Amino acid sequence: MAYRPFYEEFPTVAEQETRAITIAPGERSRLPVGEYGFVEMFCDEPGCDCRRVFFSVLSSTRHQIEAVVAWGWEKPEFYATWMNTRNPRVVAELKGPVLNVGSPATALAPALLELTRTVLLRDPHYVERIKRHYQMFRQRIEGGRPVTGPPRTERPAKKLDLPSARTAPVDVAYRPARRLPKTKPHVRPARRDDCPRARTGIPPKPSLPFAAETPPGAAFSHYEITTEPMPEPHYQRLPQRVKEEIERLHDIVQRRPREAIPALQDLITRYPRVPQLYNYLSVAHARAGQRREAEAVVEENYRRNPEYVFARVNYAEVCLARGDYAQVAEIFAHTFDLSLLYPQRKRFHLSEVANFMGLAGLYFLATGNRELAEHYDTFLQQIAPEFPMTRRLHKTLFPVIIYLTHLCFRESKEVSYLSTHCV
Ligand SMILES: [Zn+2]
Questions:
Q1: Which of 101, 138, 195, 250 could bridge 147 with an S-S bond, Cβ 3.0-4.6 Å?
Q2: Structural domains of the chain, with CATH
Q3: pLDDT tens digits for 17-26?
Q4: How many A from CA of 1 to the centre of ligand 1?
């Protein structure tokens, strides 16, 4: 069984209903003053109905997971039947609350277990909430089917599966909160040609505290973003058979990259102005484990085809990874503004804008301008939330602990005080 955070499936509900308990000064507690957030995790194994929750307990002052507490709300008989065991130790372990074996546990863990037992789980409203969250989560896992009722008595005995192995997914990676249905296209549907094209309606954020750099959005009044295909002109002019050859190589790059390399090199000699060829070749090198060669190709593409937005972005990415921030700024002409880099263009494809701005955001984060990086992030969340670059910037800006801190302790969120909960 694997346990996943509730917020991954229901971020909005999690934001409103993740409980935190405040230990105020003067409170009689073994815990340091601060807030303790209880991030819920539930089982995501299809067909399972184990009726347990795992709390990753986060401290507001130390910004870390202090303990992982497991708890099952049903009677012991349920877990005995479910696990097909009479071993009281096993049943007690399943019912809890217990500190989960193998999960993070600091010196505060025993006191947090105590807090869970004596305060959190004595709140009947909260216990009902946990059951409701479990139902929601399980229904999502089962694809909308209601969770089965009584435990399955015929279920074969499970291995002693005290869930220790994979119970701390919150430590792994934060998945962006906004998950769209799989059927949703990655970009907004392309407008038909006869439709008037609105400019992006995102106003520039006023009064940004920087002078030298252009904020994203400020430049948007100068160009239009489209999701219609925008064929690259050099590629367009190629003879049909060459295009077909390139498409064939694109497939080979994925499966047998070494085989594609000489053919792509040959094509580049013949058609040095077709930027896609460099992309494919650099991917082939990278996939073949030839990182240096891949980077050289990326740089070559930038030198030869700087008008190609992705050549710029890819080379900037290489420089960013090297820590060569001066070169990144150079590539973006110190403006980070597409309309200044390409004054002759009035339209950009959404993927160009998203990759360009995402890279710019990463650059600003790396160079200490977090506020501006967040501004790019906010902007990208609006125009291209599902783009890989958007996700990458967002994840880099908000690693899991920062997200959990937001989830548990942001202002105006529901907070319980220890004293108000003592029963
Ligand atoms: Zn389960």
A1: 138
A2: 3-174+406-421 (no CATH), 218-399 (1.25.40.10)
A3: 999 999 988 8
A4: 6
